[in-house]
C-alpha cells in the first residue's frame, strides 16, 4: 500500500491519535493535518508534535512496524503541510483581520492568540514566528495574527519557512533516531507518544501559569 494513498480501514479514525491518523492516511495524512493545524483555526486541537515524532519513529521501524512509512515521503509531506498551512493562515488573517479570531468561542484559542501577540511584541517578528512553531495552539493562531497585524509578507514567509523546516524535520528525525536505536520500539509506541504529548504541552502550561501569576500580581497592586 502506498503511503500517499488512503488506506481502507473498517475502524473509525481518531483525529487526536497520531497512530490512528498515520494508519489510515499515511504520509498524506501528515500533510493534511499539519496544513489544518497551522493554517486553519479549527485545527488548533490536532496532534502536530506527536504526529511528526510518531511518523519518524515508524519510518525507522520499516516494514516491521504497524504502518509502512518512508522517511523521505514523510519529510516532504510534513514540510509541505506545515509551510503551506502557515502561509494560508497568514493570508486568511491579512484578509479577515482580527475578526477571524473573534468569531471563535474556544478559550484555548484566545489564550493562544494572547500568547502569540506577546511573542511578537517581546521577540520581534523573526524570533516569534520561529518560536511559535514549538508551542501548541500558538503555532495555529500566530500565522493569521501576523497577517492581521500586517507583518510584511516577505519577512513572514522567510521566517515561517525557517521555523517550519526546523520544527518538522527536527521532530521527524528525533523520532527516527529513537526508532533506529531501540529494537522493536513500536511495541512501546503508546507510552512514547504520550510522553511526547506531555512534553509538547509544557511550554503552554508554563505560559498559562505565568499569565495567571501576572494577573494575580496586577490585582494585588491595584
Describe this structure in words.
This protein has 222 residues and is mainly alpha-helical. It contains 8 helices and no strands. Helix 1 (18-39) runs parallel beside helix 3, helix 3 packs across helix 6 (138-148) and helix 3 packs antiparallel against helix 7 (153-181).
- Strand content range: under 5%
What average pLDDT do the residues reach? 78
Helix percent reads over 70%
* Strand segment count: 0
Which blocks of ≥5 consecutive residues have pLDDT under 50? 1-10
Which radius of gyration do the C-alpha atoms yield? 18 Å
Q: How far apart, in Å, are the first and last alpha carbons?
A: 64 Å
Which structural class matches the secondary elements? Answer: mainly alpha
Shape type: globular
- Provide the succession of SSEs: HHHHHHHH
